[in-house]
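Record now logged for everyone:
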Amino acid sequence: MKSVNFQLDGMNSIEITQIGEELFEVRLAFDGIISMHYMTHEQLAQLGCTFHIEGGIGSLLNN
């Protein structure tokens, strides 16, 4: 399993773990609330475009 974690500020973070060839677990910690989402590679790429981090996440998880 490949995983990448970004510490945003304080206790806020995003952690992305590849759990299958096309399936990712995305955990968001924001203001003490943790949410977990399952996304396909395409959905994750759209998230990356929104936050301008697609290159970093994509290159880290695809190696």
Notes: Strands lie at 2-9, 12-18, 23-30, 33-40. Helices lie at 41-51, 54-61.
